[in-house]
Amino acid sequence: MESQESHKLWGGRFSSETNPKLEKLNSSLHLDRRMYAEDIEGSKAYAVALEEIHLISNSEKEDICQGLDRIRIEWDKNEFITKNGEEDIHTTNERRLKELIGEPATKLHVGRSRNDQVVTDMKLWLKTNLATLKNAIRLLIDTIVTRSLKEIDVIMPGYTHLQRAQPIRWAHYLLSHAWSLKNDYDRLLNNFQLLDVMPLGSGALAGNPFNIDRLKLAENLHFSQITPNSMQAVSDRDFIADFLFWASMVGIHLSRLAEDFIIFSSKEFEFVTIDESFSTGSSLMPQKRNPDSLELIRGIGGGLFGQCCSFMMVLKSLPSTYNKDLQSDKEAMFTTFDKLTSILEVTTGTVKTLKVNSEKCRSALSYEMLATDVAYYLVRKGVPFRTAHHIAGRVVAEAEEKNVNICDLTLEELRSISSYFEVDVGRVWNYENSIEQYQATGGTAKSSVLTQINILKSWLKSQDGEEKACQPN
Ligand code: ARG
To answer: Where does the Argininosuccinate lyase C-terminal domain lie (predicted)?
Structure first.
Protein backbone atom coordinates (compact mmCIF):
# COMPACT_ATOMS: atom_id res chain seq x y z
CA MET A 1 0.00 0.00 0.00
CA GLU A 2 1.18 3.49 -0.84
CA SER A 3 2.01 5.75 2.06
CA GLN A 4 -0.18 8.83 2.48
CA GLU A 5 2.83 11.08 2.00
CA SER A 6 3.23 9.88 -1.55
CA HIS A 7 0.05 11.77 -2.46
CA LYS A 8 1.58 15.09 -1.56
CA LEU A 9 3.02 17.22 -4.30
CA TRP A 10 5.50 18.77 -1.93
CA GLY A 11 6.58 15.69 0.05
CA GLY A 12 10.20 15.83 -1.12
CA ARG A 13 11.68 18.07 1.55
CA PHE A 14 9.72 16.53 4.44
CA SER A 15 10.83 13.59 6.53
CA SER A 16 7.95 13.33 8.97
CA GLU A 17 4.22 13.01 8.40
CA THR A 18 1.74 15.84 8.65
CA ASN A 19 -0.22 15.93 11.87
CA PRO A 20 -3.66 14.44 11.10
CA LYS A 21 -5.45 17.39 12.68
CA LEU A 22 -3.62 19.79 10.39
CA GLU A 23 -4.14 17.50 7.46
CA LYS A 24 -7.88 17.69 8.03
CA LEU A 25 -7.88 21.44 8.44
CA ASN A 26 -5.63 21.91 5.44
CA SER A 27 -7.71 19.89 3.04
CA SER A 28 -10.10 21.75 0.77
CA LEU A 29 -10.98 18.76 -1.38
CA HIS A 30 -14.48 18.42 0.07
CA LEU A 31 -15.18 21.87 -1.35
CA ASP A 32 -12.99 22.34 -4.39
CA ARG A 33 -13.91 18.97 -5.90
CA ARG A 34 -16.77 20.93 -7.40
CA MET A 35 -14.23 22.53 -9.71
CA TYR A 36 -12.98 19.25 -11.13
CA ALA A 37 -14.12 20.08 -14.67
CA GLU A 38 -12.48 23.50 -14.60
CA ASP A 39 -9.28 22.06 -13.15
CA ILE A 40 -9.14 19.51 -15.96
CA GLU A 41 -9.97 22.10 -18.61
CA GLY A 42 -7.17 24.34 -17.31
CA SER A 43 -4.69 21.46 -17.24
CA LYS A 44 -5.51 20.40 -20.77
CA ALA A 45 -4.99 23.91 -22.08
CA TYR A 46 -1.75 24.12 -20.11
CA ALA A 47 -0.53 20.87 -21.64
CA VAL A 48 -1.20 22.27 -25.10
CA ALA A 49 0.77 25.39 -24.18
CA LEU A 50 3.67 23.27 -22.87
CA GLU A 51 3.82 21.33 -26.11
CA GLU A 52 3.95 24.53 -28.11
CA ILE A 53 7.13 25.57 -26.31
CA HIS A 54 8.49 22.01 -26.60
CA LEU A 55 8.59 21.29 -22.92
CA ILE A 56 6.60 18.15 -23.60
CA SER A 57 6.31 16.13 -26.79
CA ASN A 58 3.21 15.79 -28.87
CA SER A 59 2.62 12.24 -27.66
CA GLU A 60 3.08 13.30 -24.04
CA LYS A 61 0.51 16.04 -24.58
CA GLU A 62 -1.85 13.49 -26.12
CA ASP A 63 -1.36 11.14 -23.18
CA ILE A 64 -1.97 13.94 -20.71
CA CYS A 65 -5.12 15.16 -22.46
CA GLN A 66 -6.55 11.68 -22.86
CA GLY A 67 -5.76 10.86 -19.24
CA LEU A 68 -7.44 14.05 -18.14
CA ASP A 69 -10.48 13.21 -20.25
CA ARG A 70 -10.71 9.86 -18.49
CA ILE A 71 -10.48 11.55 -15.12
CA ARG A 72 -13.25 13.89 -16.15
CA ILE A 73 -15.46 10.91 -17.01
CA GLU A 74 -14.70 9.35 -13.64
CA TRP A 75 -15.80 12.54 -11.89
CA ASP A 76 -18.85 12.93 -14.11
CA LYS A 77 -19.95 9.40 -13.31
CA ASN A 78 -19.20 9.86 -9.65
CA GLU A 79 -16.66 7.06 -9.86
CA PHE A 80 -13.56 9.07 -8.96
CA ILE A 81 -12.01 7.74 -5.77
CA THR A 82 -10.18 10.27 -3.64
CA LYS A 83 -7.59 9.18 -1.11
CA ASN A 84 -7.20 9.99 2.53
CA GLY A 85 -4.96 12.93 3.15
CA GLU A 86 -5.34 14.47 -0.29
CA GLU A 87 -5.19 18.22 -0.15
CA ASP A 88 -7.24 19.64 -2.96
CA ILE A 89 -8.65 19.08 -6.41
CA HIS A 90 -5.36 20.00 -8.10
CA THR A 91 -3.35 17.44 -6.13
CA THR A 92 -5.98 14.76 -6.57
CA ASN A 93 -6.31 15.13 -10.31
CA GLU A 94 -2.54 15.10 -10.74
CA ARG A 95 -2.18 11.99 -8.60
CA ARG A 96 -4.82 10.20 -10.63
CA LEU A 97 -3.25 11.31 -13.90
CA LYS A 98 0.01 9.73 -12.83
CA GLU A 99 -1.78 6.51 -11.99
CA LEU A 100 -3.40 6.47 -15.40
CA ILE A 101 -0.61 7.57 -17.72
CA GLY A 102 2.57 7.35 -15.69
CA GLU A 103 5.60 9.55 -16.34
CA PRO A 104 4.17 12.25 -18.67
CA ALA A 105 1.87 13.28 -15.82
CA THR A 106 4.88 14.42 -13.83
CA LYS A 107 5.73 17.00 -16.50
CA LEU A 108 2.39 18.78 -16.52
CA HIS A 109 3.02 21.08 -13.59
CA VAL A 110 6.21 22.62 -14.95
CA GLY A 111 6.17 26.40 -14.58
CA ARG A 112 2.71 26.22 -13.05
CA SER A 113 1.78 26.47 -9.39
CA ARG A 114 -1.41 25.69 -7.57
CA ASN A 115 -1.39 29.42 -6.86
CA ASP A 116 -2.17 30.40 -10.44
CA GLN A 117 -4.09 27.17 -11.01
CA VAL A 118 -6.60 27.72 -8.21
CA VAL A 119 -7.51 31.28 -9.23
CA THR A 120 -7.90 30.15 -12.82
CA ASP A 121 -10.18 27.30 -11.76
CA MET A 122 -12.30 29.60 -9.63
CA LYS A 123 -12.71 32.16 -12.38
CA LEU A 124 -13.67 29.43 -14.83
CA TRP A 125 -16.13 27.97 -12.34
CA LEU A 126 -17.79 31.29 -11.64
CA LYS A 127 -17.92 32.20 -15.34
CA THR A 128 -19.87 29.02 -15.99
CA ASN A 129 -22.03 28.91 -12.92
CA LEU A 130 -23.10 32.52 -12.66
CA ALA A 131 -25.41 31.61 -15.53
CA THR A 132 -27.49 29.62 -13.03
CA LEU A 133 -27.97 32.71 -10.91
CA LYS A 134 -28.68 34.84 -13.97
CA ASN A 135 -31.41 32.42 -14.99
CA ALA A 136 -32.85 32.26 -11.49
CA ILE A 137 -33.10 36.05 -11.36
CA ARG A 138 -34.69 36.19 -14.78
CA LEU A 139 -37.23 33.60 -13.78
CA LEU A 140 -38.19 35.61 -10.72
CA ILE A 141 -38.51 38.81 -12.74
CA ASP A 142 -40.59 36.93 -15.29
CA THR A 143 -42.88 35.64 -12.56
CA ILE A 144 -43.38 39.15 -11.19
CA VAL A 145 -44.04 40.61 -14.63
CA THR A 146 -46.61 37.91 -15.47
CA ARG A 147 -48.47 38.48 -12.21
CA SER A 148 -48.35 42.24 -12.63
CA LEU A 149 -50.02 42.12 -16.01
CA LYS A 150 -52.70 39.72 -14.83
CA GLU A 151 -53.44 41.70 -11.68
CA ILE A 152 -52.99 45.21 -12.97
CA ASP A 153 -56.39 46.35 -11.69
CA VAL A 154 -55.78 45.38 -8.08
CA ILE A 155 -55.28 48.46 -5.94
CA MET A 156 -53.91 48.72 -2.44
CA PRO A 157 -52.37 51.16 0.02
CA GLY A 158 -48.78 52.14 -0.64
CA TYR A 159 -46.70 52.65 2.50
CA THR A 160 -43.94 54.86 3.74
CA HIS A 161 -42.71 54.30 7.32
CA LEU A 162 -45.13 51.36 7.19
CA GLN A 163 -47.94 53.91 7.46
CA ARG A 164 -50.65 54.19 4.81
CA ALA A 165 -49.44 56.77 2.33
CA GLN A 166 -51.09 56.82 -1.09
CA PRO A 167 -53.19 54.40 -3.15
CA ILE A 168 -51.16 52.41 -5.67
CA ARG A 169 -51.51 49.49 -8.02
CA TRP A 170 -50.46 46.11 -6.61
CA ALA A 171 -48.66 45.60 -9.92
CA HIS A 172 -46.66 48.78 -9.39
CA TYR A 173 -45.63 47.51 -5.99
CA LEU A 174 -44.67 44.08 -7.34
CA LEU A 175 -42.68 45.61 -10.17
CA SER A 176 -40.66 47.67 -7.70
CA HIS A 177 -39.01 44.39 -6.69
CA ALA A 178 -38.52 43.35 -10.29
CA TRP A 179 -36.60 46.54 -11.01
CA SER A 180 -34.23 45.98 -8.08
CA LEU A 181 -33.59 42.50 -9.39
CA LYS A 182 -33.02 43.85 -12.87
CA ASN A 183 -30.33 46.14 -11.40
CA ASP A 184 -28.79 43.09 -9.75
CA TYR A 185 -28.79 41.33 -13.07
CA ASP A 186 -27.04 44.26 -14.77
CA ARG A 187 -24.49 44.45 -11.97
CA LEU A 188 -23.79 40.77 -12.44
CA LEU A 189 -22.86 41.40 -16.04
CA ASN A 190 -20.26 43.92 -14.82
CA ASN A 191 -18.82 41.24 -12.56
CA PHE A 192 -18.18 39.09 -15.60
CA GLN A 193 -15.57 41.56 -16.80
CA LEU A 194 -13.23 40.96 -13.87
CA LEU A 195 -13.69 37.25 -14.27
CA ASP A 196 -12.59 37.38 -17.85
CA VAL A 197 -8.91 38.00 -17.04
CA MET A 198 -6.78 34.83 -16.96
CA PRO A 199 -4.21 34.39 -14.19
CA LEU A 200 -2.68 31.13 -15.50
CA GLY A 201 0.98 31.55 -16.35
CA SER A 202 1.74 33.52 -13.20
CA GLY A 203 3.38 30.55 -11.45
CA ALA A 204 3.75 30.70 -7.70
CA LEU A 205 4.27 34.47 -7.79
CA ALA A 206 7.12 35.42 -10.14
CA GLY A 207 5.63 34.50 -13.51
CA ASN A 208 6.35 31.80 -16.07
CA PRO A 209 10.02 31.09 -16.78
CA PHE A 210 9.47 29.26 -20.07
CA ASN A 211 7.88 32.12 -21.98
CA ILE A 212 4.65 30.30 -22.39
CA ASP A 213 2.19 31.92 -24.81
CA ARG A 214 -0.30 33.21 -22.29
CA LEU A 215 -2.50 34.97 -24.83
CA LYS A 216 -3.02 31.77 -26.72
CA LEU A 217 -3.62 29.91 -23.48
CA ALA A 218 -6.24 32.51 -22.55
CA GLU A 219 -7.91 32.15 -25.89
CA ASN A 220 -8.10 28.37 -25.47
CA LEU A 221 -9.70 28.82 -22.08
CA HIS A 222 -12.10 31.50 -23.39
CA PHE A 223 -10.67 34.37 -21.38
CA SER A 224 -10.53 37.68 -23.22
CA GLN A 225 -7.54 39.07 -21.31
CA ILE A 226 -4.54 37.98 -19.22
CA THR A 227 -3.42 39.34 -15.86
CA PRO A 228 -0.62 41.90 -16.24
CA ASN A 229 1.22 41.17 -12.97
CA SER A 230 1.91 37.70 -11.62
CA MET A 231 2.10 38.80 -7.97
CA GLN A 232 -1.25 40.52 -8.17
CA ALA A 233 -2.71 37.61 -10.12
CA VAL A 234 -2.03 34.95 -7.48
CA SER A 235 -3.19 37.10 -4.59
CA ASP A 236 -6.21 38.63 -6.26
CA ARG A 237 -9.56 37.57 -4.87
CA ASP A 238 -11.38 40.79 -5.71
CA PHE A 239 -13.59 38.89 -8.08
CA ILE A 240 -14.72 36.71 -5.17
CA ALA A 241 -15.31 39.74 -2.97
CA ASP A 242 -17.30 41.32 -5.80
CA PHE A 243 -19.35 38.20 -6.18
CA LEU A 244 -20.01 38.05 -2.44
CA PHE A 245 -21.02 41.69 -2.30
CA TRP A 246 -23.22 41.25 -5.33
CA ALA A 247 -24.87 38.21 -3.76
CA SER A 248 -25.36 40.13 -0.50
CA MET A 249 -27.15 42.85 -2.40
CA VAL A 250 -29.46 40.31 -4.04
CA GLY A 251 -29.99 38.74 -0.61
CA ILE A 252 -30.92 42.11 0.82
CA HIS A 253 -33.40 42.70 -1.98
CA LEU A 254 -34.95 39.29 -1.44
CA SER A 255 -35.12 39.85 2.30
CA ARG A 256 -37.05 43.07 1.77
CA LEU A 257 -39.50 41.37 -0.55
CA ALA A 258 -39.87 38.56 1.98
CA GLU A 259 -40.50 40.99 4.82
CA ASP A 260 -43.24 42.74 2.83
CA PHE A 261 -45.02 39.48 2.19
CA ILE A 262 -44.64 38.31 5.77
CA ILE A 263 -46.43 41.49 6.83
CA PHE A 264 -48.97 41.33 4.00
CA SER A 265 -49.82 37.71 4.78
CA SER A 266 -50.51 38.34 8.48
CA LYS A 267 -54.12 38.28 9.68
CA GLU A 268 -53.82 42.00 10.35
CA PHE A 269 -53.31 42.67 6.64
CA GLU A 270 -54.38 39.56 4.71
CA PHE A 271 -53.42 41.19 1.42
CA VAL A 272 -51.92 37.91 0.28
CA THR A 273 -52.23 34.24 1.17
CA ILE A 274 -49.04 32.22 0.91
CA ASP A 275 -49.70 28.92 -0.81
CA GLU A 276 -49.68 25.86 1.40
CA SER A 277 -46.79 24.46 -0.59
CA PHE A 278 -44.67 27.36 0.63
CA SER A 279 -45.93 27.52 4.23
CA THR A 280 -45.65 25.28 7.25
CA GLY A 281 -47.77 24.63 10.30
CA SER A 282 -47.15 24.72 14.02
CA SER A 283 -46.64 21.58 16.08
CA LEU A 284 -48.59 23.18 18.91
CA MET A 285 -51.15 25.57 17.46
CA PRO A 286 -53.33 23.82 14.90
CA GLN A 287 -54.62 27.03 13.33
CA LYS A 288 -51.17 28.33 12.38
CA ARG A 289 -49.93 28.69 8.85
CA ASN A 290 -46.48 30.16 8.96
CA PRO A 291 -44.68 31.89 6.10
CA ASP A 292 -41.50 29.89 6.67
CA SER A 293 -40.41 30.21 3.07
CA LEU A 294 -40.30 33.98 3.43
CA GLU A 295 -38.63 33.87 6.82
CA LEU A 296 -35.91 31.61 5.45
CA ILE A 297 -35.40 33.97 2.53
CA ARG A 298 -35.22 36.91 4.92
CA GLY A 299 -32.78 35.19 7.28
CA ILE A 300 -30.56 33.58 4.68
CA GLY A 301 -30.64 36.72 2.56
CA GLY A 302 -29.16 38.64 5.46
CA GLY A 303 -26.67 35.88 6.24
CA LEU A 304 -25.09 36.26 2.81
CA PHE A 305 -23.60 39.53 3.88
CA GLY A 306 -22.02 37.63 6.79
CA GLN A 307 -20.07 35.56 4.25
CA CYS A 308 -19.02 38.70 2.43
CA CYS A 309 -17.98 40.44 5.60
CA SER A 310 -16.05 37.46 6.90
CA PHE A 311 -14.15 36.99 3.64
CA MET A 312 -13.26 40.67 3.52
CA MET A 313 -11.69 40.20 6.96
CA VAL A 314 -9.66 37.29 5.58
CA LEU A 315 -8.33 39.56 2.84
CA LYS A 316 -7.55 42.47 5.12
CA SER A 317 -3.83 42.93 5.83
CA LEU A 318 -2.75 39.75 4.06
CA PRO A 319 0.88 40.06 3.09
CA SER A 320 1.70 40.00 -0.60
CA THR A 321 0.82 37.14 -2.91
CA TYR A 322 -0.50 33.73 -1.91
CA ASN A 323 -1.21 32.84 1.70
CA LYS A 324 -3.21 29.84 2.82
CA ASP A 325 -5.78 32.12 4.40
CA LEU A 326 -7.06 32.51 0.86
CA GLN A 327 -8.24 28.92 0.79
CA SER A 328 -11.38 30.03 2.64
CA ASP A 329 -12.47 31.67 -0.61
CA LYS A 330 -14.01 28.36 -1.68
CA GLU A 331 -16.30 28.05 1.28
CA ALA A 332 -17.43 31.65 0.85
CA MET A 333 -18.01 31.25 -2.87
CA PHE A 334 -19.80 27.89 -2.84
CA THR A 335 -21.90 28.55 0.24
CA THR A 336 -22.99 31.90 -1.09
CA PHE A 337 -23.71 30.45 -4.49
CA ASP A 338 -25.80 27.58 -3.10
CA LYS A 339 -27.73 29.66 -0.61
CA LEU A 340 -28.48 32.40 -3.07
CA THR A 341 -29.63 29.90 -5.67
CA SER A 342 -32.01 28.25 -3.24
CA ILE A 343 -33.53 31.44 -1.88
CA LEU A 344 -34.02 32.75 -5.41
CA GLU A 345 -35.84 29.56 -6.33
CA VAL A 346 -38.01 29.63 -3.21
CA THR A 347 -38.82 33.30 -3.76
CA THR A 348 -39.95 32.55 -7.29
CA GLY A 349 -42.10 29.66 -6.08
CA THR A 350 -43.62 31.70 -3.28
CA VAL A 351 -44.38 34.72 -5.45
CA LYS A 352 -45.77 32.55 -8.23
CA THR A 353 -48.17 30.60 -6.01
CA LEU A 354 -49.36 33.19 -3.53
CA LYS A 355 -52.88 34.51 -3.82
CA VAL A 356 -53.58 38.20 -3.78
CA ASN A 357 -56.76 39.10 -1.91
CA SER A 358 -57.88 42.06 -3.96
CA GLU A 359 -60.87 42.85 -1.73
CA LYS A 360 -58.68 43.06 1.37
CA CYS A 361 -56.18 45.23 -0.48
CA ARG A 362 -58.88 47.59 -1.58
CA SER A 363 -60.70 47.77 1.73
CA ALA A 364 -57.45 48.74 3.44
CA LEU A 365 -57.57 52.02 1.53
CA SER A 366 -58.94 54.92 3.52
CA TYR A 367 -60.01 58.38 2.45
CA GLU A 368 -57.40 60.29 4.41
CA MET A 369 -54.92 58.71 1.96
CA LEU A 370 -56.39 61.16 -0.56
CA ALA A 371 -55.32 64.22 1.43
CA THR A 372 -52.42 64.79 -0.98
CA ASP A 373 -54.97 64.71 -3.78
CA VAL A 374 -56.94 67.47 -2.07
CA ALA A 375 -53.79 69.58 -2.21
CA TYR A 376 -53.24 68.66 -5.89
CA TYR A 377 -56.88 69.56 -6.61
CA LEU A 378 -56.23 73.04 -5.22
CA VAL A 379 -52.93 73.33 -7.11
CA ARG A 380 -54.85 72.62 -10.32
CA LYS A 381 -57.13 75.52 -9.33
CA GLY A 382 -54.12 77.82 -9.15
CA VAL A 383 -53.25 77.62 -5.42
CA PRO A 384 -49.48 77.47 -4.71
CA PHE A 385 -48.53 74.01 -3.39
CA ARG A 386 -47.44 75.06 0.10
CA THR A 387 -50.73 76.90 0.65
CA ALA A 388 -52.67 73.99 -0.85
CA HIS A 389 -50.84 71.55 1.47
CA HIS A 390 -51.79 73.70 4.44
CA ILE A 391 -55.45 73.89 3.37
CA ALA A 392 -55.56 70.09 2.85
CA GLY A 393 -54.14 69.70 6.35
CA ARG A 394 -56.98 71.79 7.69
CA VAL A 395 -59.47 69.61 5.81
CA VAL A 396 -58.00 66.53 7.52
CA ALA A 397 -58.16 68.25 10.92
CA GLU A 398 -61.76 69.37 10.32
CA ALA A 399 -62.82 65.81 9.45
CA GLU A 400 -61.02 64.48 12.51
CA GLU A 401 -62.74 67.00 14.69
CA LYS A 402 -66.15 66.12 13.27
CA ASN A 403 -65.27 62.45 13.44
CA VAL A 404 -66.10 61.85 9.77
CA ASN A 405 -64.16 60.81 6.68
CA ILE A 406 -62.71 63.70 4.70
CA CYS A 407 -64.97 62.74 1.82
CA ASP A 408 -68.01 63.26 4.01
CA LEU A 409 -67.36 66.96 4.62
CA THR A 410 -69.96 69.03 2.77
CA LEU A 411 -69.03 71.49 0.06
CA GLU A 412 -69.99 74.30 2.46
CA GLU A 413 -67.69 72.94 5.13
CA LEU A 414 -64.90 72.71 2.58
CA ARG A 415 -65.58 76.17 1.24
CA SER A 416 -65.43 77.56 4.77
CA ILE A 417 -61.79 76.39 4.74
CA SER A 418 -61.04 77.59 1.20
CA SER A 419 -63.18 79.24 -1.45
CA TYR A 420 -61.22 77.34 -4.11
CA PHE A 421 -63.30 74.22 -3.41
CA GLU A 422 -66.02 73.71 -6.01
CA VAL A 423 -68.55 71.04 -6.76
CA ASP A 424 -66.02 69.06 -8.83
CA VAL A 425 -64.14 68.26 -5.59
CA GLY A 426 -66.27 65.10 -5.55
CA ARG A 427 -63.93 63.64 -8.19
CA VAL A 428 -61.12 63.63 -5.63
CA TRP A 429 -62.81 60.97 -3.50
CA ASN A 430 -62.02 58.17 -5.89
CA TYR A 431 -59.03 55.88 -5.49
CA GLU A 432 -58.78 54.98 -9.18
CA ASN A 433 -58.80 58.67 -10.15
CA SER A 434 -56.07 59.25 -7.63
CA ILE A 435 -53.93 56.46 -9.05
CA GLU A 436 -54.50 57.53 -12.63
CA GLN A 437 -52.89 60.92 -11.99
CA TYR A 438 -49.48 59.33 -11.87
CA GLN A 439 -48.94 58.90 -15.57
CA ALA A 440 -45.43 60.31 -15.78
CA THR A 441 -42.83 57.59 -16.41
CA GLY A 442 -42.33 55.49 -13.31
CA GLY A 443 -45.71 56.27 -11.75
CA THR A 444 -48.52 54.01 -10.61
CA ALA A 445 -51.09 54.92 -13.33
CA LYS A 446 -52.16 52.00 -15.50
CA SER A 447 -50.43 53.34 -18.62
CA SER A 448 -47.18 53.81 -16.75
CA VAL A 449 -47.34 50.36 -15.16
CA LEU A 450 -48.04 48.84 -18.57
CA THR A 451 -45.02 50.64 -19.95
CA GLN A 452 -42.89 49.08 -17.19
CA ILE A 453 -44.30 45.67 -17.99
CA ASN A 454 -43.58 46.09 -21.68
CA ILE A 455 -40.03 47.25 -21.07
CA LEU A 456 -39.34 44.31 -18.79
CA LYS A 457 -41.02 41.88 -21.16
CA SER A 458 -38.91 42.89 -24.12
CA TRP A 459 -35.81 42.92 -21.93
CA LEU A 460 -36.60 39.36 -20.80
CA LYS A 461 -37.04 38.35 -24.40
CA SER A 462 -33.75 39.91 -25.44
CA GLN A 463 -31.94 38.09 -22.62
CA ASP A 464 -33.53 34.87 -23.66
CA GLY A 465 -32.09 35.29 -27.14
CA GLU A 466 -28.68 36.16 -25.69
CA GLU A 467 -28.69 33.08 -23.52
CA LYS A 468 -29.48 30.85 -26.46
CA ALA A 469 -26.78 32.50 -28.56
CA CYS A 470 -24.22 31.76 -25.82
CA GLN A 471 -25.08 28.12 -25.59
CA PRO A 472 -22.59 25.77 -27.22
CA ASN A 473 -24.00 24.02 -30.30
N1 ARG B 1 -6.01 24.49 -2.14
C2 ARG B 1 -5.26 25.71 -2.25
C3 ARG B 1 -6.23 26.88 -2.17
O4 ARG B 1 -7.33 26.71 -2.41
C5 ARG B 1 -4.53 25.75 -3.55
C6 ARG B 1 -3.34 26.64 -3.54
C7 ARG B 1 -2.28 26.04 -2.66
N8 ARG B 1 -1.06 26.79 -2.76
C9 ARG B 1 -0.11 26.68 -1.84
N10 ARG B 1 0.95 27.41 -2.03
N11 ARG B 1 -0.24 25.93 -0.78
O12 ARG B 1 -5.86 27.97 -1.87
So the answer is: 369-436
